[in-house]
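Our platform keeps sequence and structure together, in a single record for each protein. Such a record has a labelled line for the sequence and another for the backbone structure tokens. Nothing more is needed to write down the fold, since each code stands for a local backbone conformation. For reference, a complete record is included directly beneath this paragraph:
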Amino acid sequence: MKTFIADNPDAKVAIDQLQYAQSWFATYNTVAVRKALEDEVQAVLSGKKLPAEALKAAQIKADEVMRPYVEQTALRLPQ
């Protein structure tokens, strides 16, 4: 790695930035899940929904988006 950095000093920027890295929202079909949440936040900000109503709707939509992943990967628990 030292040789690589010596030969490519610009690559050290990425290494130096790791100390500032933060976790981020990532899940199966992240874009669709994030859009469900963002749409509902917008509905609250525009006065079309109350926060609790929007949160419930976002969860329902996220569950719909995530269903294929859950069905393929989750353990089937007895009902």
In short: The helical segments are 2-7, 12-17, 30-45, 51-73. The chain has a mean pLDDT of 90. The CA atoms of residues 69 and 75 lie 11 Å apart. Residues 28-71 form one domain.
